[in-house]
Amino acid sequence: MNSVQKIWENRYIIGGNSGAGSYGVLCDYKSKFINTFINDKNIKSMIEFGSGDGNQMEQFEIDNYIGLDISEYIINVCKQKYKDITNKNFITYDEYYKNSNKYDLAISLDVIYHLVEDVIYIKYMDDLFSSTNKFVIIYSTDWKEKYNGSHVYHRNFTKYIDVKFKNAKLIYHEPNKYPSLSTAEFYIYSINN
């Protein structure tokens, strides 16, 4: 188990949640933004990398949702909690790697700056961009700053994407409407095949 996985596994086991960004006004803001995009682009399927406790997912208006998280504990909690919602499912990374599906939309909300290990960050970005042939939405900070001993490492991911994923084009950027609550912003990429 890597350090990022340990942090989140332990957090969920002791009863913690996905964090302030998955609740309240920020949850509502992100859900409205994503639901508008889903409606405007006629998105039918979506995978979320870092679905956490599922609270954010409850507001998504999508035909087919897959939530993926590094915490097997919270995935099992979500599978049980949301078992009666047939169009929204949760899977572990092991289950994800057995599946070759492509989704209309892949999303990453408040995750990238928690990936403090470079090898985990690189794998995460590869998985995120290989899971879709249409769109990626990222909600994160976009500058480089590491906090020693912390579970936060801000990364300049847009530069990384420009170099690593030549088929991805940034089509929209929205500064946060609540900058006093979060420094993360929205970035939408289209995938050109």
Secondary-structure blueprint:
Layout: H1 3-13, H2 24-40, E1 45-49, E2 64-68, H3 72-81, E3 88-91, H4 93-97, E4 103-109, H5 118-130, E5 132-140, E6 145-146, E7 153-154, H6 157-164, E8 168-174, E9 185-191
The biggest beta sheet, please?
Answer: 7 strands, mixed
Q: Tell me the name of the CATH class.
A: Alpha Beta
Along the chain, the helix and strand elements come as HHEEHEHEHEEEHEE
**Share of residues in helices:** 25-40%
CATH architecture descriptor? 3-Layer(aba) Sandwich
- The fraction of residues in strands falls at 15-25%
Tell me the CATH topology.
Rossmann fold
Uncertain residue segments: none
Indicate how many domains the architecture comprises.
1
The CATH homologous superfamily corresponds to: Vaccinia Virus protein VP39
Number of beta strands: 9
With strands numbered from the N-terminus, the spatial order across the biggest sheet is 3-2-1-4-5-9-8
**Number of separate helices:** 6
Shape descriptor reads globular
> Which structural class fits the helix and strand makeup?
alpha/beta
Q: What distance separates the N and C termini?
A: 34 Å
Write down the overall mean pLDDT. Answer: 90
Q: Provide the gyration radius in Å.
A: 16 Å
